[in-house]
Amino acid sequence: MKQQLTNIWKDWRLHAIVLGIVLVTEMVGTHSFTVGPGVILLLPMLYAILIGLGLFFTPLVKDKQSKNAEPLIVLGVTLLIAKIGVIIGPALPEIIAAGPALLLQEFGNLATILVALPVAVTLGLKRESIGMTHSVAREPNVGLIMDKYGFSSPEGRGVMAIYIFGTVFGAVFMGLISGFLATWTPLDPLSFAMASGIGSGSMMAAASGSLVAAFPAMEQQILAFAGASNLLSLSTGLYMSIFIGLPLTEKLYDVMTRRKKTEAKREVKEGA
Amino acid sequence: MIKNIQEWLLLLGIYGGVVLIGNWIGYDVMPVGAVPGMLILIGICLIGLILGKVMPGDIPSVAYVAIIGVLFSMPWIPGSDLVVSFTNEVNLLAITTPILAYAGIAIGRSWTDFVKLGWRSIVVAMCVMVGTFLGSALIAEVILRMQGII
């Protein structure tokens, strides 16, 4: 942990607010409703992040509380990782058996380039789209882009845009789509469990939490696979971006924009 | 160092208390029954945080925390069944609720940046997340089926 924790425990106002949020959200509990063929799950943690965000705009939360809350996320994720560790331990034989799938699904993170880059280019985004779509844009990837292109480059602006979206709405969004996709598509919940580990503790928790709520009988397996996959993403994600993700995004971007340019030229000629 | 340990212990204690209350209301586990499990988890965190500080190299403490958690609960380790049954009383989702409550309060400060994002960025961001999630799930499905696990 890089941040200096100094006397944050004394910020009773902050802890009391969080206790209040936990009391309210856990009392409300999990609710679900069906949308077409899938199920959307609303979990206490999703209300918690939205209530927390809402309270930020009330006089209850001052700037000091908001600043103090930041290192506490890191510490909370440490506790979460300890819990995931003791879920993975007893499931270790199973995880080793599923090792090939766990390792290879990491390459699925590259699918984001194939899905999102064409969308970005079609929407008219320029080199921003390289920063936006080369990965899921968590901290290591932001560092990589800043290091390579600089903070005020278009690529840097792109990666920051996705980082900000992920920070604010990542957990909520992943929680909503994971339960929906797992109930709507024919894919196995365990495949989605592995996919939940995208290298962010809170997104992993939200995505796998929705899966557990939808398939409670498979709880231990889902959490063990999601946790193992998340640890794997955390340790391999940066190298995946450096050696495959970013070069592939650059290449595809060149191909797509060149084709766009020649098409535009042809249109101009035909028009004339 | 002593000051660090003291601060970690106090903050993890606060977290632990809040989690146990959420665990009670949301998942019907009496706090008394979940205390040993919580103490084990806090202990794992503390060892990992201390190792992260004193060990050479730039390895983050969460890596140590994960490894220690796995080590203590592996089936080949004597006493691991106790670690597993005690920590089973602490629900994962009860831990995530306070984390995301703190996160909500903290991200309020990013809200002005968020509002400045155009609609195009938001569309692309959603595609990025759906892309990685579905891509990984598809590959996992194919391999797990080939192996006959599902």
Automatic annotation (TrEMBL), chain A:
The entry's keywords:
Membrane, Transmembrane, Transmembrane helix
Q: Which domain of life is it from?
A: Bacteria
Positions of transmembrane segments? 12-33, 39-60, 72-92, 107-125, 161-184, 190-215, 222-246
Xref: Pfam families: DUF3100
Q: Does the keyword DNA damage apply?
A: no
UniProt xrefs under InterPro entries: DUF3100 (IPR021450)
Name of this protein: DUF3100 domain-containing protein
From TrEMBL, chain B:
Enumerate the UniProt keywords alphabetically. Answer: Membrane, Transmembrane, Transmembrane helix
Q: Indicate the transmembrane segments per the record.
A: 7-27, 33-52, 59-78, 90-111, 123-144
Could you tell me the superkingdom of the organism this chain comes from?
Bacteria
Its name, as the record gives it, is DUF340 domain-containing protein
What organism does this protein naturally occur in? Answer: Halobacillus salinus
